[in-house]
Structure formats: C-alpha cells, structure tokens
Amino acid sequence: MERKFYKNLFAISVDDFFTSEANKKSFIFQGSKNWYMYLFDKPKCSDYSVFQNVEILSFKEKEDFLHYMKNINLIDYSLEHISELNRYLLLVNSNEY
C-alpha cells in the first residue's frame, strides 16, 4: 500500500470538471462512490467540496483494497483507474486508520 497525504482536496461534479483546463490539470481521480472528480488545486467553479487532512491509499492487489474498504470509514474509492494506473484507490481521513 502507498499513501499520499493532502491538506486540502477538492471535489467537483463531472459537469463542472469539463468547464476548465485548469481543473483537468489538477485532476487526481474520479470516485466510484459518488462520481466526483477530485483535484489538488481549488477548482475553477463555484460549486465544490473541500476535504481536509485526507489521504489516498493506493493498492496493487484487489484483495488488500477490499480488506481496507470493509474495515475503514472511507470518503470515496475508485475502481475506474485500475486499467490506467494498475492501482485501486481509497480516499480516507488521515486519522481513520
């Protein structure tokens, strides 16, 4: 498992995501739970959510991903990027595990 900490992570809708090239440059991943697009920079739209002190947990093995997913209070997860990154992703509060 790899971990990446973010002091602030921004979530916007898919529709808002495509309104700005800056949003696309700041893209991290798309969630499977709620289909939000997650960005590391403040988005170029007025409707967004901010998650503070979060981490993305990245797994190579699906079994490890599923184990953590069952045992943690997660914000979101991603199955959409397995073919691009060869990784399964979980977004969690940094103090949750």
How would you describe the overall organization of this protein?
The structure is a single chain. A hairpin with a 6-residue loop joins strand 2 and strand 3. The chain has one domain (2-93). The chain has helices at residues 14-17, 21-25, 62-70, 82-85; strands spanning 2-12, 27-30, 37-39, 49-59, 74-78, 88-93. The protein contains four helices and six strands. The longest helix is centred in the C-terminal third of the chain and has 9 residues, at 62-70. The model has no long low-confidence stretch (mean pLDDT 90). By secondary structure, the protein is an alpha+beta fold. The protein starts with a strand and ends with a strand.
